[in-house]
Amino acid sequence: MTDEADAVVVGAGPNGLVAANILADHGWRVEVLEARDVPGGAVHSDRGVHPDFVSDTFSSFHPLAAASPTIAALDLHEFGLRWSHAPSVLAHPLADGRCATLHRGVDATAAGLAGHFGADDAAGWRRLSALWDRLDPHLVNALLSPFPPIRSGLALAARLGAADGLRFARTMTLPVRRLGEEEFSDVGATMLLAGCALHADMLPEAAPSAAFGWLLAMLGQQHGWPTPVGGAGALTEALVRRLTSKGGAVRCGTRVTSVVVRGGTALGVRTANGDAVRARRAVLADVPATTLYGGLVSWDDLPARLRDDLRRFTWDPGTFKVDWALNGPIPWTAPEAARAGTIHLAADLAELSDYAVQVASDRLPARPFLLIGQMTTADPTRSPAGTESAWAYTHVPRHVTEDLGGGLTGRWDPGEAQAYADRLETRVETFAPGFRSRIIARRILSPLALQAANANLVGGALNGGSAAIHQQLVFRPVPGSGRPPTPVRRLYLASASAHPGGGVHGACGANAARAALRVERLAVARTIRRRSAGRNGSTGRCR
Ligand SMILES: Cc1cc2nc3c(=O)[nH]c(=O)nc-3n(C[C@H](O)[C@H](O)[C@H](O)COP(=O)(O)OP(=O)(O)OC[C@H]3O[C@@H](n4cnc5c(N)ncnc54)[C@H](O)[C@@H]3O)c2cc1C
Predict the structure, then answer these.
(1) Using a 6 Å cutoff on CB, does residue 42 contact ligand 1?
(2) Ligand 1 in contact with 235 (CB < 6 A)?
(3) What's the pLDDT tens digit per position in 333-384?
């Protein structure tokens, strides 16, 4: 080994950087090794589409970071992070010209729903918002803690009591379509929740899509869906600045090729440059479970059962993204859509369901559901006044067996990528006639391009593995997990493949760092006990 640190963190994504910051706060010397030539993983921005436009290459809106107690405790504003908000959080324009809009604050959201969809939808929305308020902040704390979340779980139980607790549990197991049927009489509020559920690989007819959609919508209503002033990369810069101020280091252009394991304990890593870095206390891996197990760590050092479990690991679908530089705002037919940071595009719930089923059954949708970001609307620093830096993404099957809109194969060669980008633009044009005429430049990120840009985005997956119920909580990434330790001593899984999964919240990294600190504390306590037992013993022998 040629270099040495207390902890080596493999990968400088948000999880790796949060983990490194927490360890550095405890006085550990931390070295983060990052394969790319820039830190941040899927939290990065650039001027690659047009020199006058800042584009977020991957993630843009960070409600989970804004709500995360771990990230709040890092005081990143002291290291340059500023959040910016669009006038409204999210809009879902429908084919019939109406628009459901999520605002910061229940009154504004309910008023909008009442105006377009009637008093019943507004009343249902208020009920679901009141439930959120009742559980705040324990629900978010529970979701971001290692599983099972004992302290916040008890706090939730105390808030709800047995009878309401059961009813809450039932609501959380509902498909979002069913929740909509139970709570609303029109479609607006359901579309807000269903579109949010489809940020993960959820069918509107499957559990727990209601819980996921409700969670993301309520986070937006409480915290907004903020974006860092200047670009997503500003969040990464703040994390790196903080880490280096505490003595930590990030070494870019350094791909880790293996974790060195001796006698069941991780001792350090080897890199593609031929270096070795010794880790005196821990190795934390911000890489997918499928990269860590059987990749960086040989199967010879892992239990046979894990190999079988990992064979069943389910990836989330691929992602297809287009970034645009626009010479004007998107000319939405629904005026409310112009003020939102995020737009969900699907004509109605049936279209949303068709899309989700098609992606799940390996067919490329003819009418893809789009998530659209209007970044200059959310943060005016992103492009010159009067223009818009925008993006759209949709999910695509990992293995395309049929294209329902033409002859694409899912090879994603340049011709296919251009054709699918055209399909996304046609979708926007339907809801915003004249959109195409505003495009100055575009950049296409197919699933292949996403993976080439960040090895964690395997096949274009953005959540580090499916968020389906069979791979959540104690099943993430394999049955029996839910906590960051791995079968190798001093090695911790710190990426979105670990509970609680994808999104920029840093919880996977924080949980891994805290697990490493706990093990170290226990080891120190054991040593002290042994020493004092030894002293007592020798006194005894003297006697
Ligand atoms: C297109 C897109 C849009 C998204 N939008 C949002 C959003 O708006 N809001 C949100 O909350 N989330 C969003 N996400 C999800 C979110 O960005 C991820 O869940 C999050 O970044 C996961 O963090 P991570 O640290 O686990 O991994 P990553 O951010 O992927 O970082 C992993 C890092 O590890 C490095 N690495 C991998 N292998 C090695 C190795 N062998 N050696 C050294 N380094 C290695 C990679 O290069 C990378 O830098 C989006 C993701 C994508 C792709």
Answers:
(1) yes
(2) no
(3) 999 999 999 999 999 999 999 999 999 999 999 999 999 999 999 999 999 9
